[in-house]
Design goal:
Rossmann fold, 17% strand, seven-stranded parallel β-sheet, single chain, 9 strands, 46% helix, two-stranded parallel ribbon, 247 residues, alpha/beta
Length: 247
């Protein structure tokens, strides 16, 4: 089976670093037109863009705060202006701000909900316009195992990701009428800027997974490429746990 993403236009929110950065590079390598989105990390986004353009020139970087409707509209318009359509929206932007419930501020709660959940709503609402018109497209939401089982000290993060899971299931039923699939992926423990120095999180996450892998990130990227491809049609409203763990 040959899997590629040639000529597919893929928007990845929060893709200047972490999982989003790796996804942008991998999708570009598979032939996709990639829109790198960043809020403030210009240097990281520009560095990624230049790296990607060595293998695929059909990529752009767009600054947009995906928690603000006008900026999401800007991201959408830049995508349509450059590539003419949207095939895939990968809602990847995410944030952590951990604390015990009795110590958690309202801002810690609201900020996490805004980035992790509200951005998924805004981007899905705006980008699905083109998908509905074309009766084609895919929305993939990066959720978390913590949205399924909860995590001590992360009530805000766990609740936001549980919201993403519920949102995914409901939106799949709405957009299925237009031949648009909506799925969520819950990765295992992958070292990113959000968790790089937190050994407690790594130990807890690893205890939930069955198989140890040298690189759980490869598992995730391979699965995402398949999910984006034309080999995966008619699958919607599903929550996929890609929970291999690092050694």
């Amino acid at each position: 089976m040959i899997i590629d993403l040639v000529n597919k236009t893929v928007v990845i929110t929060g893709s200047s670093r972490g999982i989003g950065r790796e996804a942008a590079y991998r999708f570009a390598r598979e032939g996709a037109n990639v829109i790198i989105n960043y809020k403030s990390s210009y240097e990281q986004a520009e560095s990624l863009l230049q790296e990607i353009k060595k293998i695929n020139k059909n990529c752009i970087a767009v600054k947009a705060d995906v928690t603000k409707v006008k900026e999401v509209e800007h991201l959408y318009q830049e995508t349509i202006k450059t590539f003419g359509r949207v095939d895939v929206l990968l809602n990847n932007a995410g944030l952590c701000s951990d604390n015990r419930i009795n110590m958690m501020s309202e801002d810690q709660w609201k900020d996490i909900m805004d980035v992790n959940l509200n951005s998924v709503f805004l981007c899905s609402k705006i980008f699905s316009k083109d998908m509905i018109k074309n009766e084609s497209g895919k929305i993939i939401n990066i959720a978390s195992m913590k949205g399924q089982i909860g995590c001590e000290g992360q009530t805000n993060y766990s609740a936001s990701k549980a919201g993403v899971i519920g949102f995914t299931k409901a939106l799949a039923k709405e957009l299925g009428h237009f031949k648009i699939s909506v799925n969520a992926v819950c990765p295992g423990f992958i070292v990113t800027d959000l968790n790089r120095h937190n050994e407690e999180k790594q130990t807890a996450a690893n205890s939930l997974s069955v198989i140890k892998q040298d690189n759980a990130l490869d598992d995730l990227m391979n699965f995402l490429v398949f999910l984006l491809s034309d080999h995966c049609k008619g699958v919607s409203g599903r929550i996929f746990n890609i929970d291999s763990r690092i050694k």
